[in-house]
Specification:
It is a single chain. This protein has 403 residues and is mainly beta. The chain is 5% helix and 42% strand. Strands 10, 13, 14, 17, 22, 23, 24 and 26 form an eight-stranded antiparallel β-sheet that branches. Strands 11-16-25-18-19-20-21 form a seven-stranded antiparallel β-sheet, with no helix packed on it. Strands 2-9-7-4-5 form a five-stranded mixed β-sheet, with no helix packed on it. Strand 23 (339-344) and strand 24 form a beta hairpin. The chain has three helices and 26 strands. The protein has helices at 9-22, 273-276, 354-357, and strands spanning 39-42, 45-48, 54-62, 70-77, 92-96, 102-109, 118-131, 134-135, 139-146, 170-174, 187-188, 202-204, 211-214, 217-222, 232-234, 236-238, 248-255, 262-270, 283-288, 296-304, 310-318, 329-336, 339-344, 347-353, 368-376, 392-402.
Length: 403
Amino acid sequence: MKRTVKINFGLACYFAVFCMFSCSKSDDSITPTNAFIPKINIQDATQIRATYGKTIRFFIYSSKATTNAVSVNYSVVDGTAVSPKDYAATSGTVSILPNQTQAFIDIDIKWDPTNLRHGALQFTVNLSDPVGCAIETSSAKGSITNEDGTYLPTDDAGYTTPLAYSGYTLAWSDEFYGTNLNSSIWNQEIGNNNGWGNNELEYYTNSLKNTFLSNGNLIIEARKESAGGYNYTSGRMTTQNKKQFKFGRIDIRAKLPVGKGIWPALWMLGANISSVGWPACGEIDVIELVGTYPSRITGTMHWKGVAGDRQLKGANYNLNTGDFSQQFHVFSIVWTLNTIKWYVDDQLFLTNTAADVGAANYPFNADHFLLFNVAVGGDWPGSPDGTTAFPQRMFVDYVRVYN
């Protein structure tokens, strides 16, 4: 006899679903999916280096607390920061305890008794081998910095001049030894003063961040940082009302910063500027450099013309090789009655005389004071752009005045 078997369709579906979950996969299939596992992240960290030991702390975060501890292994890889010179490399396991969402790793930073000024030196902390969790961010950068250190040596290579010349006596000099600028000689100007007449973009400070002595050099540093409503800081110093000069030979040995929008200057203004104003007081630019022309400096004198306008006469000096940031050069003027001559490394490149001023008043037979500064931006150099590196530094080895 033929038997017909009828199967209930709903019951068949039930058995199919049951078999799918109970028969087709091993026990591993019941492990919680990644959606329920806490995610682990590590955060970048920065530490300022000091003359004593410090640590840099990396925080490890879990996306949720759990009833069991979770852990990851960590290891450290050199970058521009190198172990053991800059930090103590280490490895191990870090755990986040039950009902907690945070832990940390401390790494020792090597102390620096010299207080060397430097930017960020970086190394990497890597996470691996998670237990009870999943790693979402597997590495973090550690940055060691000492942007405000007061020790900054530089290569002393370059041209130099003697302490004595035949027919001259050394009347005054500053060799910039010691740790502090001589405040009986130098003023440090503060502010922007409406761009100092040039639409400059920096805010000048008297901070050691921007002007300091190190290793026998004066260093003026321009930074990309906010102050006084401006996006850059720098240093500007003068001898106004403290030290003034007339005639003789002036030597300034310096290494200059370069780059788009950078404008270092070593120059002089007439001591009577407060009473007669500029340009009637006269301006002697021993040198200026526009950063987009790193191998060129300009020497100039400015005066007030008969019509009351500014008049000037100057010339450029170009290096045959390299640029003015790579080595020290000596910038000089030889200044006599009615005549000023400009030199770079004892090479004459400009002579100006009273005849160049014509019928106007010639202001250069009177006392002048010194100014050193590094401007950022302004009508002449233009603004910095993405190619301009910061900080920018001018090193001055000495200024010497002979009569």
